[in-house]
Amino acid sequence: MPETHISRHIEALIFSSVQSISLQEVILALNTVFSAEYDEIFVLDHIEAIRDKYNLEDSILQLVHINNGYQFLTKKEYHETVNQLQLHRSKKKLSQAAMETLAIIAYRQPITKLEIEQIRGVNSDYSVQRLLEKELITMDGKAETPGRPILYSTSPMFMDYFGLQNLSQLPQLKDIVKEENTVGETVE
């Protein structure tokens, strides 16, 4: 089979995936469709060629490696324009309560709903439900405490949504806290 033909199939797989697609998923799809035994190096070479193609072309898209997978995203120079569209799509927005809940889950995962509510100080049923519906969080088993409450963690969609490769890329809490939000004097 011609090499460009395989590249086009890989490009189609990445393009059609709603979230990032892993190298293993690409290999599995190719091997199944073509009854072949393509290896990681072969597929990675084609992915790099696709990445180079989009970097050289006058294209609005770029191929990026995020969340241990590959996804087409718009290039940075178009982010502000695309962001305006996103701002106008209110059903895609997360409420302040949902963002607070998501931040707590991201930094303290796995975490129970009761623990989330203790941190927030309010009922979080609706926020947790909305985040599950948007697939930004997942149920991650049950705690080994009385009643065996459900544990929540961030999902692969969370990683894609925020463009993170891994959780270590989350901002450190010390970088987020502003001087004006602190009470009292800082002692060094």
TrEMBL record:
<keyword id="KW-0963">Cytoplasm</keyword>
<dbReference type="InterPro" id="IPR036388">
    <property type="entry name" value="WH-like_DNA-bd_sf"/>
</dbReference>
<dbReference type="Pfam" id="PF04079">
    <property type="entry name" value="SMC_ScpB"/>
</dbReference>
<protein>
    <submittedName>
        <fullName>Condensin subunit ScpB</fullName>
    </submittedName>
</protein>
<keyword id="KW-0131">Cell cycle</keyword>
<keyword id="KW-0159">Chromosome partition</keyword>
<keyword id="KW-0132">Cell division</keyword>
<dbReference type="InterPro" id="IPR005234">
    <property type="entry name" value="ScpB_csome_segregation"/>
</dbReference>
<dbReference type="GO" id="GO:0051304">
    <property type="term" value="P:chromosome separation"/>
</dbReference>
<dbReference type="InterPro" id="IPR036390">
    <property type="entry name" value="WH_DNA-bd_sf"/>
</dbReference>
<dbReference type="GO" id="GO:0051301">
    <property type="term" value="P:cell division"/>
</dbReference>
